[in-house]
Amino acid sequence: MNFHEGGPSRFSFYASSSSSDDEDQPSANIQNEMNRIDEQQTVLSQLINSATVVSNYFQESDNLHRQGSITGHVVINRDRLAAELRLYNDYFSESPMYNESMFKRRFRMSRRLFLRIMESVQQHDNYFVQKVDALGRPGLSPYQKITAAMRILAYGMAADSTDEYIKIGESTAIESLKRFCRAVVEVFGDWYLRSPNVEDIERILLIGKQRGFPGMLGSLDCMHWKWKNCPTGWAGQYAGRSRKPTIILEAVADYELWIWHAYFGLPGSNNDVNVLSKSHLFVNLANGVAPPAKYVIQGKECTMGYYLADGIYPKWPTLVQTIHNPQGPKKKYFAARQESCRKDVERAFGVLQSKWAIITGPARVWRKQVLHDIMTTCIIMHNMIIEDERELNVPVTDYREAPIPDVEMAHDEHVRFQEFLARHRKIKDKSAHYALRDALIDHLLEEYSNSEY
Questions:
Q1: β-bridge mates for residue 320, sequence order
Q2: In this predicted structure, what is the pLDDT of residue 453?
Q3: Measured distance CA(361)–CA(347) in Å, rounded
Q4: Which of helix, strand or coil describes residue 258?
Q5: Which of 349, 358, 367, 368 is nearest to 149 (CA)?
Q6: In this structure, are strands 306-309 and 300-302 parallel, antiparallel, or unpaired?
Q7: How many CA atoms lie less than 13 Å away from 86 in the CB half-sphere?
Q8: Which pLDDT score, from 0 to 100, does residue 12 have?
Q9: What is the band of 3 on the pLDDT scale with cuts at 50, 70, 90?
Q10: Phi, psi of 125 (to 5 degrees)
């Protein structure tokens, strides 16, 4: 029997089925591999999209709140080392290109005073110490940072204009100015903004007596500094007579133009009387801790000095004003002499603004605390310059040193309060003001009569 005749046998069926399975197996594996690759690509594309979204979010957040370098920032090779060397050779070397007089004209002070300030500021704030970066390159020197701050204060120039010579960026120049002013206030403020001590008062009283006003401690007045960048919400409060936002400085200056008292920060809408009521000019006197200002006028001994002021101030025995529309030769002579001596504080304001042009023009700073530091720094360095030049022109070479007063404070709170009220009433005694003014008129006339003979 032939099993292969008449059609395929079951063995041939199995053989053909086995061969077809072998052919379909590779195609199935390829299809599975392609499906797996497609799934991986889908997951990968989703991850890439998620990462892009997160990166865009953080990039936008960095642009809003970034404190360091900004993406896309162009780095300028300023060659700061060459600029530092040029600055040092121009002004600070043993044989500088520019002499002492040119240094004083451009820095508003002598070279030795500038170096003294720089050394003290450098020891107080590590920001002014020259540092080295990770590549071993030295950073900005204290000469560059402090010179940039001085140029802004002295010339009132924009911060980015210091880049041309000193090679320092705008943001770094502004930061140097803020830190320099804060360091000067913290290092030198206690001494150069102090109230007059016993020796100072004795010297001032001696000069006042020579000028015809025994008991005079200085001249009192106010000046305004225009605030260009005053916040809009504060503009009405700070607008004064000029209808522009200003900040008021109250100051007392003596014959040397030394500023003994400075009170800065009140809005320009206040007048001089409002500023006086808020300042601390008579705080020590009211508390009984001020050194006594002893002097004799017309045979009467007094222990409370006074300041020369203009007519807006109240009639207190601690303030002597001129006579408005004086009648008669006696009062006219007194008014002329009083106005002549009262110009000390006006001259002090003029010298202060001429040396530091930043307080002459409108203030371009936003924060009030920075403005306070700038004004205080200018006053401190103004007094330092006067002290540095005092040995060249000293009108008084001999004065009597007064002993330190021994003040006994009462322990009873009620007694202390009553003593405070008594001193406060004495400061504002109107009758004592007129008595003092009449005594000064008689004293000036007597002095004038003696000078004629």
A1: 308
A2: 47
A3: 18
A4: coil
A5: 358
A6: unpaired
A7: 9
A8: 44
A9: very low
A10: -125, 120
